[in-house]
Each structure stands twice: as structure tokens, then as C-alpha cells.
What does this fold into?
Amino acid sequence: MTKRLQVLFADDELREIRGAARRRRLTVAEWVRQALRAARAAETASDPTSKLAAVEHAARHTFPVGDIDAMLAEIERGYVGDRTA
It folds into this structure.
């Protein structure tokens, strides 16, 4: 279902919006829809709160880790096909 949204602009601001829409060969309504979608996407993408919460949650745990030099040596042996260890 679609809903109507009414937004009031001053004459000079509406004139600029009409010009921007015309330059892109869009109706004012489509230009506004695209602008609002872009604004919503930018807001969602720039909000690091949920990502930081996930990192903080993961940092509370302890996981077994190996010695970095031993792990890199094992990886390298895997690349060259050496199965002796």
C-alpha cells in the first residue's frame, strides 16, 4: 500500500528542487523519493552502534588461539604442499 506525504517548501526552495529533478529528467515526486531513500541508506550505513555492540559482545569471550608463527608456518606448508610437520 502506498501513502501520500505532504511536504511544504518555500517558493525558492521548491524552485531549486524542481530544477534538480528536471536536470535528472525526473518528476519532483520521484526526485524526492530517491533523495529520501538515499538519506535513509546513509543514516543506516553511518550508524556504527549495532556493529560496535557486536564487537564488544565478541570481545567478552575468550577463544583458544595458536601461536601466530606456528599458524603461519602451517598455512605456508599448505600452500606449497608439504605435509610433514
Notes: The chain has four helices and no strands.
